Amino acid sequence: MTLKKSSANFHPDLESVMFTEGEIKTRVKSLSREIKAVYGDGEFTIVSIINGAVLFTADLMREIENPVRLDCIRISSYGEKTQSSGTPQIVHSLTLDVAKRHVLLIDDILDTGKTLALVDGLIRKLNPASLRVCVLLDKQGRREVPYEADFVGFKIPDKFVVGYGLDFAERYRNLPCIGVLKAELQNPPEWA
Ligand code: 5GP
Ligand code: MG
Q1: Where are the domains of the chain?
Q2: Residues lining ligand 1, CB < 6 A?
Q3: Residue 138 and residue 144: Cα distance in Å, rounded?
Q4: Which one of the ligands is nearest to 74 CA?
Q5: Which CATH architecture has domain 28-156?
Q6: Least-confidence region, from 12-21, 42-51, 80-89
Q7: DSSP 8-state class, residue 111
């Protein structure tokens, strides 16, 4: 464990490892218990914001024994930048009917709050029985619109992180850990 944490060379493009695979697993398990404590044995509908939340959603779902339905929503991303730019757009909306259903919205990271505020508004218009939000990471200091999640895996400082579903220009999603991308790799050259 300590070996991985200190091994900045876990992936050559990482400056440091913020959470190891083991630490993520442990927290996902305890988050599932927090969720269970709120929903009891009842059914709920998971709405996962893709692509970023795919790994987190898949792991969290497997820790949950409740009957669940799954839907995904695709929101436009940063492109090849590390700072959120402009207003997020819905690229692909829901397929399942969530009216009168208990909805658990899942995202990888809560940053400015714009993405979750947008999706929250969209889901509420569909008259769900309830709406709760679960994020793996929360960069609380970066909020531009007020938004808080009901379940938070880890609060993190303002660092651009990749791995475990989180990308930079669609890369690094497959890393089993979460780490800080080296600063020199965060801005692609003009020709990229
Ligand atoms: P928000 O709309 O809250 O600013 O941003 C949420 C989205 O921005 C997340 O779903 C994620 O896709 C992206 N994002 C925010 N911070 C980071 C980060 O540190 N690393 C990566 N890879 N994506 C981030
Ligand atoms: Mg995302």
Answers
A1: 28-156
A2: 49, 52, 77-78, 84, 88, 107-115, 160-162, 166-168
A3: 13
A4: 2
A5: 3-Layer(aba) Sandwich (3.40)
A6: 80-89
A7: S
